[in-house]
Design goal:
The complex is a heterodimer. Chain A is an all-alpha fold. Chain A contains two helices and no strands. Helix content of chain A is about 90%, strand content about 0%. In chain A, helix 1 packs antiparallel against helix 2. In chain B, helix 1 runs antiparallel to helix 2, helix 2 packs antiparallel against helix 3 and helix 3 runs antiparallel to helix 4. Classes of the chains: A mainly alpha, B mainly alpha. The interface between A and B is medium-sized, with 33 and 35 residues.
């Protein structure tokens, strides 16, 4: 249970970081870098979430015998 | 208690993120859904074990129980996906997922219906 809360805060942290970076880069005029960092952040979070989703679906398959 | 706490924390963080990063907010709600379900898996599997050995004692054949378990599992996963799609604003996709889930459940329920009808026919000459 504890490690899961970490995941929540990791995702929130990355989200806020990416939002701040986006805003800073935009105000500094480098619009394209802003989008790249946003995409990078979203990709990292997506990897974590999909990994968790994989474990969830495996557990559902094993418990509900959904083969 | 932990679940409620986690839910509230995620709600607050989602509001913060939705301001300027909507995609992150959806990721957050998905992660929260996954975590809450994972923490409940232990209890669900223990309840299922109780049900299965009760049914073994009452010598109900495992086929019916297995199908019921599958239907419950499919219903849950489909609902999980549909809610997240609806949360992301994709109402159409969500209804498609639920539609597909209904079809799958229907397909799985057919053998049970046939079995019931057969047994009925045996009773009524």
């Amino acid at each position: 249970m504890g490690s899961d809360v970490n995941l929540i805060f990791k995702i929130a942290g990355v989200g806020i970081l990416v939002a701040a970076a986006h805003w800073v880069l935009k105000s500094a005029g480098k619009e394209d870098y802003a989008f790249i960092t946003t995409l990078g952040g979203v990709a990292v979070v997506l990897v974590w979430v999909i990994y968790q989703l994989g474990t969830l679906f495996d557990q559902v398959k094993s418990v509900f015998k959904l083969f | 208690m932990q679940v409620v706490g986690l839910g509230l924390v995620v709600a607050v963080l989602a509001i913060i993120l939705r301001g300027n990063r909507p995609e992150m907010a959806i990721m957050l709600s998905m992660a929260a859904g996954i975590i809450i379900f994972l923490s409940m898996m232990g209890k669900i599997s223990s309840v299922l074990e109780v049900i299965t050995d009760l049914s073994d004692r009452a010598n109900i054949s495992m086929v019916y129980l297995g199908t019921i378990l599958k239907i419950v599992g499919i219903a849950y996963v489909a609902d999980f996906g549909a809610q997240i799609c609806r949360d992301a604003g994709e109402g159409a996709v969500a209804s498609k997922i639920e539609f597909a889930a209904k079809i799958i459940v229907l397909v799985m329920a057919v053998p049970i219906v046939v079995a019931v009808l057969n047994s009925l026919l045996k009773v009524v000459p």
